[in-house]
Amino acid sequence: MITFEEAQAIAFQSLEALGTEMIPFDTALYRVLAENIITKEFFPPFDKSAMDGYACRKEDLSEPMEVIETIPAGTKPIYTIGKNQCAKIMTGAMIPDGADTVIIKEKVQIWDENHIIFKDVFSSTNICYKGEDAEEGEVMLLKGTKLEAQHLAVLATLGQIRIMVYKLPRIGVLVTGSELVEPHETLRDTQIRNSNAYSILNQLKQERFHATYYGIVSDHYQLTTDQLLHSIKNNEVLIMSGAVSVGDFDLVPQILKENGFEILFHGLHMKPGKRLLFAKKDKKWVIGLPGNPVSTFVQMQEFAIPFLYKLMGCIALKPPIFLSLDHVLERKNGDKKEFIPVQINASGKVNKVAYNGSGNIQALIAADGLMEFPMGKNRLEENERVRFISF
Asked: For residues 85 and 187, what is the distance between their CA atoms, to the nearest angstrom?
């Protein structure tokens, strides 16, 4: 048994690059940049108005000012602003020469047909200056950045319509268990429906990963061997659920060893998901998830998805979120890191939801996420800060 942190470090050290490809920027949501993005111009490219108002000289604010033109956004000013002059200007429009201030229209009084006067205390120039957001030649996005909506907006602003990203790993999903049937099938005695495949596939889909589902394989040595080797053949990563523990029919560890895979770890000080397995052969990886549905869900969230992003060259995973605990929480044994389904209440604190253990996938419906009960602790106090993982 090793800690989760040790397991993650081992997995990340096993990584090898998958290669890169050029794609249109607007198809790149959740992909990982394989190049630095450098600005080729200033942003903004000219001094522009931050408000609808009047462009003028600060030194003239106490006097009536003549309105000499109107400047819509996208239109170049015609005149230079002189003494006691101003131009009506729209948000985003270019500041005319001679002006050093924009006064907002709500703080202006109409003096006569062609003149206005400022009726307030000066507080801001209301000008966005050329290059204040980014200068030409500046690194705007770093290689290894996971691209989200705000990054795509920046790429659009830069006119960077094609970008180099790391390739997506090809992922296979395989579920084991003679007791399992697919959701559309009628249950017979001793059978249960397969929920793990659909948990795994949709957790991957939420992160824009593409996966091939290879179905259910029964707890039969040769059948499991054949389906495992078939599933890994055309994929870099195989995610399996079940048959990775230490029972008589937990066949996967032995099959992997016999087919040249090195098991890098098999077992964590963690609950649920204690029997997580991780193996590698050449540029292929197998993630073996325990069969209980909450264990599968938690290890996908905590281990498998971060691993896939690291495999794609992501330099920084999301920072942890900490929230306050609404009540005292105790447990009998503190020898493991434990994840517990919780709700966020109206005060922004977390409450444990009703939860009957790692087979109780229904408990996740009432939960907003998971909280971490740290290894080495048997009691958490009211208002103590705990790590929160949102779904």
From this structure: 83
Place of tokens 């907002």: 104
Q: Tens of pLDDT along 300-338?
A: 999 999 999 999 999 988 889 999 999 999 999 899 999
pLDDT digits (tens, 9 = 90+) for 19-68: 999 999 999 999 999 999 999 999 999 999 999 999 999 999 999 999 99
Provide the 8-state DSSP code for 134.
B
Cβ(292)–Cβ(350) under 8 Å?
A: no
- Residue 73's DSSP bridge partners are none
Q: Please state whether 344 falls in left (phi above 0), alpha (psi between -120 and 50) or beta.
A: beta
How far is 35 from 19, CA to CA, in rounded Å? 12
Supply the DSSP string of 305-343, one letter for each residue.
HHHHHHHTT-S-PPPPEEEEBSS-EE-S--SSEEEEEEE
Which has the closest alpha carbon to 176: 233, 239, 219, 226?
219
DSSP track, 360-380: -GGGGGS-SEEEEE-TT-SEE
Q: Which amino acid type is present at position 165?
A: V
Decide: 294 and 338 in contact? Cβ < 8 Å: no
Q: Distance (Å, rounded) from C-alpha 151 to C-alpha 107?
A: 36
Cβ atoms < 10 Å from Cβ of 230: 13
241-268 burial string, b = 16+ CB within 10 Å, else e? bbbbbeeeebbbbebbeeeebebbbbeb
The total number of residues written for the chain in this structure: 391
What the block records as the tokens of 80 is 């230079």
- The whole-model pTM stands at 0.89
Rounded Cα–Cα distance for residues 151 and 159 (Å):
12
Answer for the pair 382, 328: CB distance below 8 angstroms, yes or no. yes
Reported as type and span, the H/E element at residue 232 is helix 221-233
d(CA 262, CA 240) in angstroms, rounded, equals 16
And the tokens for 239? Answer: 């995610």
d(CA 70, CA 52): 11
